[in-house]
Design a protein that fits this description.
527 residues, mainly beta, six-stranded mixed β-sheet, rod-shaped
């Protein structure tokens, strides 16, 4: 009995340690924005790549709110107004109207991670370069010391930045900072690290393209997400992985193309090693035939050429069977990563993943791989409109032709300026003794899709009918008389007049819908 209990507890602990990520896709709607929901968490990291010739984009929870970054081009981060990844939300994310993220009819593949998969953070280098001497040519470093003060060089000499000998042309930055280049926030050696900079145009070597580093063949070789492959020591931000995280290159002055730039914010993503993550390598067979690599069955797979100079390729479990992409804007390939299998993955004859060299890969599983729920919320129609008498009415409205679940009904007496919710999830709604013209509708929601309203009906309320008074009584001579009677003080429409010679025991209907009625030469007392 005790052994059974111990086994159960260990089993539960194993499940709770699993990675949490979500792999899926959505179809662009071409609208000003589109919210993708149903992930079950707020993403710490999100990458989106269109299924056409759209480049990959990334957003992290540490980036300036609402900003996104192209993974493969020397651009600054893009603000929400540019319509890329506009926000990371409580249960998903929202994209804007850019072709990069929401073109009508285009499929966009995405992978989202929460904080149990990764550690996200940021750093901003603020430390100083060695002291500047009058006879020393400035060849690097972000700040220099002169006369007991720290300065940032502002002069360009055609071959590189260097301070002018006149300190008045420098910018006094005060005391140097303490950035060490040792990022230890993860607290463990990562399986992979991504670094994405935010900065100003012109600092492109330091801030873009984004770069990554596997804990594989060469953990001290960073790579671009696009063609260009491995970076030289003079153009990379990531220096090496460490036992507690990673280290960066020495800080540089923006524009000197040597390591992270002073004053630029860098965001990083460190992927934790676990039973659902694998980094390893394989040797290509020259592309003559399919090569099957035995590995963790991936839901997300990245492959790069160790020698460099080639594109980085990736594939998710929701992409078509033989299709894979680069992070750049190239079209889909069916000759690169051609399958994610139960025992690993297959590559075909593209030399960037199966030439004669060595290739590193990052494989991830253990999360959710799910096709999007087909949204088909249909509001239907309500029957039927009617005209009723104020305070004395009752009928039942019925919803038909809808798809999804009825969330509630609503009513409004001001044409939906202020709808009033009615707690009713059935297909019928009864109104009773209403005194003002009122519209009614049902609210319907299909699965995780957005709710929609049914067509509404209008119950027009007429005020209570008031007969009014006819003027005026008169006594006349039989057979020689004539006058006009007038109706006043009535409410409602006149449908006819009536006359009677026996106090309305019997009556005669007169076809007249006006407010006046004439009599002429009557011979009997008549009402």
């Amino acid at each position: 009995m005790k052994k059974g209990i111990i086994f159960f507890l260990l089993f539960v602990l194993t499940l709770s340690a699993g990675a949490t990520h979500y792999v899926s896709y959505y179809t662009g709607n071409g609208a000003a924005s589109q919210s993708i929901t149903g992930l079950g968490f707020s993403p710490a990291v999100l990458i989106v790549r269109g299924g056409g010739t759209q480049s990959g984009w990334i957003a992290t929870s540490t980036m300036t709110a609402g900003y996104a970054k192209m993974l493969t081009a020397p651009n600054d981060v893009d603000a929400p107004s540019t319509g890329k990844i506009n926000s990371l939300d409580a249960d998903g994310f929202t994209v804007g109207n850019s072709a990069a993220a929401n073109t009508l009819g285009v499929i966009y593949y995405y992978v989202a991670w929460d904080n149990s998969d990764v550690t996200v953070g940021s750093f901003t280098p603020d430390n100083c370069a060695p002291a500047y001497g009058a006879a020393t040519v400035y060849n690097g470093g972000d700040l220099v010391s002169y006369g007991g003060k720290n300065y940032k060089a502002t002069m360009w000499n055609g071959g590189g930045f260097q301070p002018d000998i006149n300190p008045a042309k420098w910018t006094n930055l005060g005391v140097c900072g303490t950035f060490t280049g040792n990022i230890t926030a993860p607290g463990w050696r990562p399986a992979m690290v991504w670094v994405i900079g935010e900065g100003t145009t012109g600092q492109w070597d330091q801030i873009s393209p984004a770069q990554f580093c596997f804990d594989g063949v060469n953990s001290n070789v960073a790579s671009h997400f696009t063609q260009g492959g491995s970076l030289t020591s003079a153009t990379k931000v990531i220096n090496d992985l460490s036992a507690a995280g990673f280290t960066t290159r020495p800080v540089s002055f923006p524009g000197t193309h040597d390591g992270p730039a002073f004053g630029v914010k860098y965001n990083y993503v460190a992927f934790k090693k676990s039973g659902t993550v694998q980094t390893s390598s394989y040797v290509g067979n020259g592309g003559g035939s399919t090569k099957s690599v035995v590995a963790l069955p991936p839901q997300f797979l990245m492959i790069k050429d160790v020698a460099g100079g080639q594109n980085t390729w990736f594939k998710t479990c929701e992409m078509p069977a033989t299709t894979s992409y680069t992070f750049g804007g190239a079209a889909a390939s069916t000759t690169s990563i051609t399958g994610l299998t139960a025992t690993g993955f297959d590559v075909l004859n593209n030399g960037e993943v199966n030439g004669g060299g060595t290739y590193e890969y990052f494989a991830l599983n253990g999360g959710t791989c799910a096709a999007p729920v087909a949204c088909n919320s249909v509001g239907g129609t309500v029957s039927s409109s009617a005209t009723v008498c104020s305070g004395s009415n009752s009928a039942t409205l019925t919803l038909a032709g809808y798809n999804g679940s009825i969330v509630k009904w609503q009513s409004s007496t001001d044409n939906w300026v202020t709808p009033v919710d009615i707690a009713n999830v059935t297909t019928s709604l009864t109104y009773t003794n209403i005194v003002a013209t009122t519209k009614y509708r049902a609210v319907v929601k299909d699965a995780t899709c957005a709710a929609v309203n049914s067509a509404d009906v209008t119950i027009t309320v007429d005020p209570v009918s008031v007969g009014g008074t006819v003027t005026v009584d008169a006594t006349v001579c039989s057979g020689s008389n004539g006058a006009t009677l007038t109706l006043a003080g009535h409410t409602g429409s006149i449908t006819s007049w009536e006359s009677s010679t026996d106090n309305f025991v019997t009556k005669t209907t007169i076809a007249n819908v006006t407010t006046t009625q004439a009599y002429l030469n009557i011979t009997t007392t008549t009402k």
